[in-house]
Task: structure prediction
Amino acid sequence: MAGFVYQSTIMRGDQERKVTMNSFNLFAQDAWQITRNLNLNFGVRYEYEGPVHDGKKDLSTFDPTRGGLVVVGNGISDLYPRYWKNFSPRVGFAYQPQAVHNLVVRGGFGLFIDTPAIVPFLDNSSSIAAASTANNGPIGVEGNPAGANPVYLLQANSYTIVPNQPIFPTGTIPVSGSNVFNLFSVSQHFRPAYDMSYNLNIEKSLGGNILLQVGYVGTEGRRLLSLVDINQAALGSGFVNTVNAAGFTFQQQSRPYFSQFPNFGVIDEIQSIGTSNYNSLQVSLKTTSWHGITSQLAYAWSHSLDEVTQYVGALPQDSTNFKGDYGNSDYDIRHHLSAFLLYDVPGSSHGPKWLSHGWQVNSNFSFRTGFPFSIHATSDTSGTGENTARGVQIGNPFQGVSHTLSNHNPVQWINPNAYTNPADGSFGSVARNSVYAPGYGDIDLSILKNIPITERFRAQFRIELFNLLKRTNLAPPSGYIGGGFGQSGDTAGDFYGSPGIGPGEPFNMQLALKIVF
Result:
């Protein structure tokens, strides 16, 4: 091995913080019966969502207009400015045409303010075990080298290991010399997110026990919490292995803030620049006490788009082109059909009552298309150190793949030859979440018998069967170019943390006896 290191980091200091967030709200609402056929509901809500604080002067953020790192309570009053204009109006109506008594038209609009969670400011990571973001930046404002309890996340990139020489400085670590520290920041333009939700539904009864509803449901999200590196290095800079007279690498010299703050590397900043939109056609058919049957059939045809779905641990491919990540949301489901049925079996007038009465059959099923996923490059081909590069499409991703399960081997869901890594010094051209994973289907059935014991006590015997059709529900495939690329080697239940008995896992049956009182 040549000993060349592309990226390395080390963290020193105590990151534990105990913070508080203050909030309060007020609302007013009213209803107006305009006519016998038209009802109007309206209201307004006010919310105040204050910034996180602890009063210990150990939270800091980056503000170049104030000299770089500034500490809350010493140089800056709050982590981000307080915002007092969170008014959210709502309005809804219900209209029943005079000539059609079994039809109702309903609609509504509402603006809803989001309460910022504490997690993005102190634990902005993709998992509980992650100590840094994808570009090796701190996971929160507690990771900065400033304040009463400084934490040092040192970075050293693009160097060759020299035997018997330390990679990182020892002892007291000054924010000077050739030391490079990665930072976490909160934009001073940060504001709480909000979404506008609207819907229009037509509801019609088909007889006394059947109800049909068809509607449009949509939302628009604005000022969504997002994370970008405002000090992202230049394309290809990580492949230039040179150091200037002051000891800074070429990559470090290429950062936007190098001339003003040469000791600051990655500066991951929370901003409120994200947007989202969701549009859907939703249809439902309900029955209530129809020959002992209660059921609901629901179908949704929808599309959801955004720049980032996860509110923690997600960086764009290119922080200088945040809107370039606009695409299908992580949980975008185009089609979803679901239903449940409860049937109270009528008891027989013949034979023992305890034997023929109290039976119930329940069933539910869910079928949907798969979640989208992104195609990622094998390594940081951009040379920026962000480690977020996507791939390049050069063929049909579904050409030559059968999606068949054979001898429990991984299923090749997409053609691995349809994608390749970008050239060094460039980002990938594949859109975020451009390919869809396997869909999901499941039918469950339960049979239960209620057995009266006393007036207050009864026993319930249950037989429950899961995944009745023994369908194999595959987990999303690997989206990283390289070994195993495009293969799904797991089931959905195990992938999402419920092996064996989770939703969509292999057929299984359980027997249960409950005492109900």
